[in-house]
Amino acid sequence: GPSACRGPPVGGGFSRPAFLQLTSEELQLADDHAGRAVQSPRESRRRLPWSTGYAEKDLCFHYWGLFDGHAGSGAAVMASKLLHLHICDQLRDLVDILQDSSPPPLCLPGILPSDALPRFHLEKAVSHESLVIGAIENAFKRMDEQIERERMTRLVAGGCCALAVVYLLGKVYVANAGDSRAIIIRNGEIIPMSREFTPETERQRLQFLGFLRPELLGNEFTHLEFPRRIQHKELGKKMLYRDQNMNGWAYKRIEEDDLKFPLIYGEGKKARVMATIGVTRGLGDHDLKVYNSNIHIKPFLSCVPEVRVYDLTQYEHCPDDVLVLGTDGLWDVTNDREVADVVKEVLMDYEPNDPLKAWAGWLQCGGGPCCPKCPVLPTCCHHSLSGYSSHSLPLSCLKGTVSQACVPGGGAGCCFLQSTGAGRRGHLRVMCSSHLPTGPPMGPTELDSTP
To answer: Please, which of 61, 188, 294, 318 could form a disulfide with 168 given CB 3.0 to 4.6 Å?
Structure first.
């Protein structure tokens, strides 16, 4: 049952797939390699799972990342080289669990005895999808911790916004920490796959932290928000304000503490946390302080991404369906519809298998010469996971270059995931559109989730 602790399968990392629904007697018969009996699912019309055809307990995931650095490129460079390794490490314990149709176990081997009974009868249902989401979230936290530990030895300066995509078992997981965004363009429809994390979108979280831990404000800031700075002559008057619990506005009588600088000040792209930084999630920034003070801003910046999931097997895709990843340098000067129209216009001029599609699409979206002031780093790779391997696993790169790119108005990078067959489910072709000084990016790499 779901409360039982699970150990590795007997005989190593091999087992009969769960969709065969074999009895214990049939499993023993299947282990007799002298007879080599042919096994088939009990329900012949039942749709086969994504992993059909794989005898080994081994799993592959594909990964794309976009890292937009600020106050230096160190954090973006480090995250572009290591974040996928942390994701791989977090997923390694889940290899057998994700390929098993039964509910995930509540504990892994070594935590509780295998015959332990649950203390409570009610158990919260946990999906396999939520395990992958949790693994990605933990990977971001481990990456941020590594940046903090090694920032002095690696000379890592500043921080970065991180937008990562993981393709696993027919689903696309989009993880965003920062103000980059991703959209899916499916048959002309725009599907947002992330949202920006800025002082305005996370106002209540930031204010609540300032309310709970006023010492983080350094006696220089107030967690309350006002429409403008309060002047000393307005003490005692009633003015509009809102706190961490409010979406609307109300009036309060101005006190001495209200004269402090607001934790969140400004509007739109000019909004800042402690008058310093305009993004509220990302990696790094461990040494960031308020100007001319000893007040650290990192406690208000979260490294945990928001993860959204898109199930490729649930939709039919036409050849020009894509997933676009872009930094704020793209979205600040274009909107979703403009990007979708550009992508559609460009892709229609190319054959489905033409590798120049990604190159042309990137140029039309505003790509330009390499610019050292805009540390935007797109990366692409895939990993193989092994459930019981004690050695490090090889990394096979699908794209050999990590580069920087910029467009008028700020740094921008894009990636495109393109469909390869009209009317096919779970079938996308990947096209990375990062700038390569020596020519267009490598050809697409096929990720097929259909048996």
So the answer is: 61
